[in-house]
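Lecture 7 notes: from sequence to structure.
We start with the chain below.
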Amino acid sequence: MHTDAAERLQELLTTDEHFRSSWRNDQKVQQDPRITGLGRILRKTSLDELPQLINVLKGDMSVVGPRPVVPEETVRYGEVMPTVLSVRPGITGLWQVSGRNNLPYPERVQLDLRYVEEQSLMLDAKILAKTFTSVAGGNGAC
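Predicted structure tokens for the same chain:
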């Protein structure tokens, strides 16, 4: 991201209705102007996730699990937030392999909840297999 990404975000939220609407709905924006050209490539290929492996090695994250949620997003999870937070977050998860950023936010929440309720080694294996396909196809990547 550009070094002034936080300032750009605030400016865009106040001046650009399309940006504000996308951000409100998904916490993501297609063609986000805060992201550098190299950043777009890293996101499209999901290489921007590689540093998260350090968090896996430290035991703060799992490879598979619900995505970590920033504090501003917790309200979107409502009453299911404690359940989603009851497991370690993951680099990849059910919503990432079910449509990535093409899914509306409420559906992402439901898929995170479903993962927590149905977690098993078999489900993790399926998610990992689908992750490679999803990343290779680049579908839903911002």
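Points to note: The longest strand covers residues 62-64. Residues 121-137 form the longest helix (17 residues).
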